[in-house]
TrEMBL record:
Entry keyword annotation includes Hydrolase: yes
Protein name: arginine deiminase
Enzyme Commission no: 3.5.3.6
Catalytic activity: L-arginine + H2O = L-citrulline + NH4(+)
Domain of life according to the entry: Bacteria
Keyword terms, alphabetized: Hydrolase
Pathway: Amino-acid degradation; L-arginine degradation via ADI pathway; carbamoyl phosphate from L-arginine: step 1/2
A UniProt-annotated Pfam family: ADI
Family: Belongs to the arginine deiminase family.
Taxonomic lineage: Bacteria, Pseudomonadati, Bacteroidota, Sphingobacteriia, Sphingobacteriales
Amino acid sequence: MINDKHFKINVTSEIGRLRALLIHSPDSGLGKVVPSKAQDWLFEDIIHLDTMRKGEYDYYVKLLMYFLDDAKINGRLAEIDSSENERAFYKPDNKNFHASNKVIEFQSLLTDILADEETRLKLVASVCAIESCNYRLQEQLTNTNPVDLAKVFISGSLSDGKMIFAPIPNLIFSRDIGIIINGHVLINKPAKKARSRETLLARYIFFNHPLFAAYQDKIIEIPEMEQYFLRPGEDNDERTTLEGGDVMVVSADHVIIGCSERTSASGANEAIKLLFENKVVKKVTVVKIPHKRDYMHIDTIFTQVKRNVWVLLGSLAITKAAVNEIEPISWFVDKRLKDRPEIIQFFSDQQQPRHFKSLEELLDDISQVDLQSTEPTKFIYSGNNTFPFDAREQWTDSCNLLALKEGVVLGYDRNDKTVEAFKASGFKTVKVTKLLQQLENKKITIDDLQDLLILMPSSELSRARGGFHCMSMPLLRDEI
């Protein structure tokens, strides 16, 4: 049982030093995505699970451990990576699992709550209802031990490998299941049926795990709009949906919510009302972006690096014409101008909403006003703002970065032009393999790191269409 009497949740920014987060390591369900169902399960491609684990995601876990819980990893790197250990350090069901209460594994929390008989009965019944299981299968799952049952719920397969329902491969994108805003938990409502089970599991964890016992009255659930069931059709476009990739806590009083392919206007509306009613924040800015798979969530087009530095997709941000040609046809063929976001800021005291002309204007206001930056705001653009590299690298998550602390961010190693843009803005870069050895050999400390882009291997992870911002649910950050 992961428990900690000193555990607390509090996130007041995107860049305060990270102290605890919730993740989910790639599970066997990812290796069972088939081409015919890939898009239904929100995947663009078929990944190679072993490479994703050993060659990519394991480095993420190791780096997080050095930053957040170094006592469990320092001096053990060779042992952890030895072939004899068969990745035991990364496996939640293994006795040699790291079991960190700072780098917290979703599967471990699920196993913990399933040990309680009443919770297990309720959750089995709920999963079986949404997955249309028969009565005998429900009885079988009810009598399955918590460790195996957690794996079944996540992978969709029994211990003998038999698939009984679909996997939930998007669970590696833990940001989308919930967001910590100050000391509150905002539980999300997914847009796609493929994510229903993971949201259900997350809801049970937040309401039943001892880690979150002190926050029961601070869990916010997004309701459906009244009488939604009277709307015509099964897949109504006006459903109330909200996903974590569309929510950014940019300061203690200010949250950004994106209206996107995955978050509806009614979802944003309900979230704003609840955040104001519960006095969680004082202002919410809605950023409406094109409902395209290219963008998906707002954190695929911008994330924060420092209080005065942001990385973003220039073609959705700049207010000037996105083309240099003066021929009339240029204005018709360049659709980027038509894709410019709509940005409106709302206030809890009901003052008149404020409009912003561009992302740069909004982000500059956040840096200067909310975060009181004393330096000019700087923008680092995807692909160095050069076509076609801007679009190519945004597709492989050049704008989807996770800040471990202010100025130290994780990104994919494949986005070369974006890396050039970081260097031109005064940042250093380092491959994660080199950094881990430096940390292990004590040639450098976490406190030494500043203005740094850490380059992570990404051939398989990038196929899953999400970066490290997506693959993290921060639970605790230092205030800045």
